[in-house]
Design a protein that fits this description.
Layout (H helix, E strand, L loop, with lengths): L3 H6 L7 E3 L6 E11 L2 E8 L2 E8 L2 H15 L10 E9 L2 E9 L4 E2 H8 L4 H17 L2 E2 L8 E4 L4 E4 L6 E2 L25 H16 L10 H10 L2 H4 L2 H8 L6 H26 L3 H4 L1 H37 L1
Antiparallel strand pairs: 1-2, 2-3, 3-4, 4-6, 5-6, 7-9, 8-11, 9-10
């Protein structure tokens, strides 16, 4: 549950200037972006660019999240989470508030992007997400609170990025933060322990959420209810094999899930191409009666020409006979 007392203590108005105690950098608050159990995130102005600033009275939580972001920076080519800019404390009348500043990732949230661009983008974005998760898992971390709300799609190039690392947990530990719909423990399909399978279950639920934007309530729960929901939607049926494997914890790595998803997408693309080719048959196949008519016409035309040629030869012989008389 969200601690509203903590939220109120971290509430600041637009225009407030936050100056770091140690680094003396100044950040002007523009607006609130969101809040959770471990703090509040604001959009702020820093020099000539916009940044995201997260503040909390829980210094341990801030330190943990900063360590996650620092760990991300050590991974070459990793771009799932935001880059870290600054870490400091802010002295207020009510006490010291710890904060850190990170890259502000601009873009549309995942649900809005798919709604606007269409489900043809779903597979591409999930493939990207699984690649980044595989790198994250190889470096000893599990994302934890993985859900569409935390996923932003940037442009130029189109890329899936995450805006909240608050739930990221070291492998083997208890998940720090979770959202019920994406939590395997809630559905009775596993423990709330940080392992790759926990994230892969959430990825499957994200795919399901894209087909059910308003989500749905847990009834009997378990794989039975989720299978029913998958089979009711055309967009999900093509991913059924991968979804059921992820929901039941059959994948050991994100790479395995990504490979099977790519294979399914390739098969689907090949089937569509085959159907398109079948619909573009040659005129001879599409109109056999028309083809027979053409052959009759050609045969008739050839007979006329042959008759005229014979008449011409007979006429020439007749003319030659007259000249010889």
């Amino acid at each position: 549950m969200i601690n509203h007392t903590l939220k109120n203590r971290c509430r600041v108005n637009a225009g407030t200037v936050i100056e770091g105690k140690w680094h003396k950098q100044k950040y002007t608050i523009i607006k609130e972006l969101g809040y959770g159990a471990n703090g509040t995130v604001y959009l702020a102005q820093y020099l000539n660019k916009q940044v995201a600033l997260k503040m909390s009275h829980n210094g341990i939580s801030i330190t943990s999240e900063v360590n996650v972001l620092k760990s991300f920076e050590k991974v070459h080519g990793y771009a799932l989470g935001p880059s870290l800019i600054d870490v400091d404390d802010w002295i207020t009348r009510s006490g010291i508030i710890s904060f850190y500043v990170m890259e502000y990732i601009k873009g549309m949230d995942l649900l809005s992007f798919i709604k606007q661009k269409g489900h043809s983008w779903t597979g591409v974005l999930i493939i990207q997400l699984l690649k980044d998760l595989d790198i994250l898992h190889q470096n000893g971390w599990v994302f934890g609170d993985l859900k569409p709300d935390n996923l932003i799609i940037t442009s130029q190039p189109t890329r899936i990025r995450c805006i909240d690392v608050g739930g990221t947990t070291m492998k083997g530990r208890t998940i720090k933060e979770f959202t019920e719909f994406f939590d395997r423990g809630y559905w009775g399909l596993g423990m709330r322990r940080a392992d790759p399978g926990y994230d892969l279950f959430a990825v499957a639920m994200i795919l399901i959420n894209l087909a059910y934007p308003n989500r749905f309530e847990k009834k009997e729960g378990g794989i039975i209810q989720l299978t029913k929901m998958i089979r009711q939607i055309n967009e999900l049926q093509q991913y059924e094999k991968v979804l059921l494997s992820a929901l039941q914890g059959r994948y050991g790595t994100a790479k395995e899930m990504r490979s099977e998803l790519l294979e399914l997408m390739g098969q689907d693309s090949a089937n569509r191409q085959s159907r398109n080719q079948s619909s573009k048959q040659s005129p001879k196949q599409n109109h056999p009666s028309l083809s027979r008519q053409n052959r009759r016409k050609m045969k008739k035309k050839g007979g006329v020409i042959e008759t005229l040629f014979i008449c011409f030869i007979v006429f020439m012989f007749y003319v030659l006979y007259l000249l010889l008389q």
